[in-house]
Specification:
Pfam families: ABC_tran. It comes from Thermaerobacter composti. Strand 4 and strand 5 form a beta hairpin. The protein is an alpha/beta fold. Helix 6 packs parallel to helix 7. The protein is built from 10 helices and 12 strands. The strands form 3 sheets. It has a 6-stranded mixed beta sheet with strand order 6-9-10-3-11-12, sandwiched between helices. It has a 4-stranded antiparallel beta sheet with strand order 2-1-4-5. A two-stranded antiparallel ribbon has the order 7-8. It has a single domain, classed as Rossmann fold, CATH 3.40.50.300. The structure holds adenosine-5'-triphosphate and magnesium ion (MG). Magnesium ion (MG) binds next to helix 1.
Length: 259
């Protein structure tokens, strides 16, 4: 049965200021939801709150994954339930190679023992399978394997960091992915790389929230639904045409309508 992520009247404070003022959104596995909205409207706050960033204090509402309250779980447990966040601003992690990071993350999510140098046959088989998955994702990104030997995001260009988030997503295969402006700062080829990885993952197993400012990515990642967030709430929902309307007219007309 398809899983459902339900956000009900979610409210959240950052440093005692109310940012999310009652967000309602239901995402089913298999659906792609785009969220657009002016700068500062709370899109990243929603992403971080869903993932469990400690700075974001939930003051009301619920987030349910198949009925289980995610808000009571730490971020790693949310990840184990299949939630994934591609960051708007990926952090550099010097000293941890991309390959090591991916291996550790996969082992943590799947609850497997990390394979040591003298790993058992089973671990070696798992490692080889993972290596193949990483190589397949690298190919979709048109990256060579030297990237996986570098430290996570260290010295990566803005666009490379975003592609790195997609590499993680391809390998971790989340049930529900939140992509926070993964398209921002990408050249047209990189944008297509990101869309290629996404569209390969797309299907009945993936529910996605794609946060973006631009219509452009929605040509390559076609959303089933488009939502507009203004001042901590989703104030309009529709299809592709809503994104086109926003592109043409900006947000003032929506802001005027919602007061
Ligand atoms: N640590 C913080 N301290 C104070 N205010 C914060 C903090 N983090 C976020 N905010 C405020 O919360 C509001 C929402 O920010 P958020 O990053 O969620 O917006 P956004 O919709 O993602 O914007 P953008 O499109 O620019 O990425 C902004 O006014 C921001 O300044
Ligand atoms: Mg943001």
């Amino acid at each position: 049965m398809a899983s459902t992520l339900e956000i009900r009247d979610l409210r959240c404070n950052v440093e005692d200021k109310e940012i999310l003022k009652g967000v309602n959104l239901t995402v089913r596995q298999g659906e792609v939801h785009a969220i657009m909205g002016p700068n500062g409207s709370g899109k990243s706050t929603l992403a971080y709150t869903l993932m469990g960033h400690p700075r974001y204090e939930v003051t009301g509402g619920e987030v349910l994954l198949d009925g289980e309250n995610l808000l009571e779980l730490p971020p790693d447990e949310r990840a184990k339930r299949g939630l994934f966040l591609a960051f708007q601003y990926p952090q550099e992690v010097p000293g941890v190679s991309v390959a090591n990071f991916l291996r550790t993350a996969v082992n943590a999510l799947r609850g497997e023992e990390p394979a040591g140098p003298a790993g058992s046959g089973k671990n070696l088989a798992a490692l080889t399978a993972l290596q193949k998955e990483i190589e397949a994702a690298l190919e979709q990104l048109r990256w060579d394997s030297s990237f996986t030997r570098r430290y996570l995001n260290e010295g990566f260009s803005g666009g490379e960091k975003k592609k790195g988030e997609m590499l993680q997503m391809a390998v971790l295969k989340p049930k529900f992915a939140i992509m926070d402006e993964t398209d921002s700062g990408l050249d047209i080829d990189a944008l297509k790389d990101v869309a290629r990885v996404f569209n390969n993952l797309r299907g009945p197993e993936l529910g996605a929230i794609v946060i973006t400012h631009y219509q452009r990515i929605l040509k390559y990642i076609e959303p089933d639904f488009v939502h507009i967030m203004v001042d901590g709430r989703i104030v309009r929902s529709g299809g592709r045409e809503l994104a086109e309307e926003v592109e043409a007219k900006g947000y003032d007309w929506i802001k005027a309508q919602v007061g």
